[in-house]
Amino acid sequence: MKPQHWPLYGLRLRTPRLELRLPELELLDDLASVAADGVHPPADMPFTVPWTDASPAACGKAVFQHVLATVANWSVRDWALSLAVLHEGEVVGRQDVTAKDFAVTGEVSTGSWLGLAHQGRGIGTEMRAAALHLAFAGLGARTAVSAAMTDNPRSLGVSRRLGYLPDGLEVTAVRGAPVTLQRLRLDRARWEEYRTVEVTLEGLDACREEFEA
After folding, report:
1. CA distances from 156 to 68, 126, 163 (A)
2. Residue 183 and residue 117: Cα distance in Å, rounded?
3. Residues 6+ apart with CB under 8 A from 60
4. d(CA 172, CA 179)
5. Fold of 7-211
6. For the chain, what are the domain ranges?
7. Is pTM beyond 0.90 here?
8. If DSSP codes are grouped into helix, strand and coil, which group holds residue 212?
9. What pLDDT digit, counting tens, does each position of 36-94 carry?
10. Facing residues of 86 across strands?
11. Per-residue model confidence (pLDDT) at position 195
12. Side-chain half-sphere of 1: how many Cα atoms within 13 Å?
């Protein structure tokens, strides 16, 4: 695919084990299939928007439509980069980097999921490290924020290993019940101190203006 009119398709984030890229249609179909196969036990709900409370086919369709929507609705003032994560050439999950008024705030937010079959191998930490490298080293971000439910130790552990600090609590409704979220914040100095994953970027210069970076 020649990304002449949407150069973000040429962006690549690489770590020792992973490649992160905006998926074209065939790769997006593979990503949707990973979602359809499950990303968490049915009794749990790690997302504030419970999109996985649906049939496998509906979950796959939702992922497919969501990623296409991030491209269609992209704005330099409100963007969402939704990357497929590949391990040894196989799609294993998704890593999002989003921002509003990035040129003013210098702040990004991250979110992600991994297929159940690929969890517990440190991939979640490595793919978030890649996203943080894009934000801080590639785009010149000043801060990165995230959040996780207080009963989600895996997500909180990833944030802790990467240097995030607690940034307060908030309560939201999920599945008709209150849940507590731990907000997390990482500034450039902490990122520099805690970075251990080697990351390379390819194709960023061609699409830098899309981020207002």
Report:
1. 29, 14, 11
2. 27
3. 32, 33, 35, 36
4. 6
5. Aminopeptidase (3.40.630)
6. 7-211
7. yes
8. coil
9. 998 888 878 777 777 788 899 999 999 999 999 999 999 999 999 999 999 999 999 99
10. 19, 91
11. 96
12. 15
- Cα–Cα distance, 85 to 82 (Å, whole number): 10
List the structure tokens of 108: 């990004």
Could you count the other beta carbons within 10 Å of the beta carbon of residue 132? 26
Site of tokens 């894009």: 134
The one-letter amino acid code at 136 reads F
Residue recorded with tokens 């520099």: 192
Q: Please report which confidence band the pLDDT of residue 1 belongs to, taking 50, 70 and 90 as the band edges.
A: low
Q: How far apart are CA 123 and CA 105, in angstroms?
A: 29
Alpha-carbon distance of 115 to 132, in angstroms, equals 21
Residue with tokens 């943080």: 132
| pLDDT for the residue numbered 72 | 97
What token pair was written down for 82?
A: 């939704």
